[in-house]
Design goal:
74% of the residues lie in helices and 0% in strands. It is built from four helices and no strands.
């Protein structure tokens, strides 16, 4: 149970980093007075939504008592982490200039955070499934 709380808290924090990181730590280009928005700003807005969803799913996973529910929530985290990876890389993108801060810092940071969330969630699903199988074999019901 303690592992689930630690994992959920870790996913919560990583989701918050994905959500607010592009606006704070590894900032992207902010819109000027004109109404023209750069691609990286649109990426940051999309990552805000995905990061919040990942954080909520991590929190729900931490407080869930059912192993089946945790596995379902973790599958949702995996799918969201894939989208979080694809947004800055392929779906929306960042500025084309290699010297731009969003290209040099935000793109790798979001890619790494998304990959870490993906890897940790896969590990947690395997761990939860194995612990669930042990509980079944010992006569304890998981549902």
């Amino acid at each position: 149970m303690k592992k689930n709380i630690i994992f959920g808290a870790l996913i919560f924090v990583l989701g918050l980093l994905i959500a607010i990181g592009p606006f704070t730590i590894f900032h992207v280009c902010i819109p000027e007075q004109s109404e023209m928005y750069m691609k990286c700003y649109q990426t940051a807005r999309a990552e805000l939504g995905i990061g919040i969803v990942i954080s909520i799913l991590g929190l729900l996973s931490a407080i869930s008592a059912s192993a089946k529910t945790r596995i379902g929530l973790n599958i949702s985290v995996i799918l969201n982490s894939i989208v979080a990876f694809l947004i800055p890389s392929f779906l929306i993108g960042v500025c084309d200039g290699k010297h731009m801060h969003c290209h040099a810092v935000a793109l790798p940071a979001l890619s790494i955070l998304s990959a870490v969330v993906f890897a940790l969630t896969v590990i947690n699903i395997i761990n939860t499934y194995r612990n669930g199988e042990k509980s079944k074999n010992e006569g304890i019901r998981i549902s």
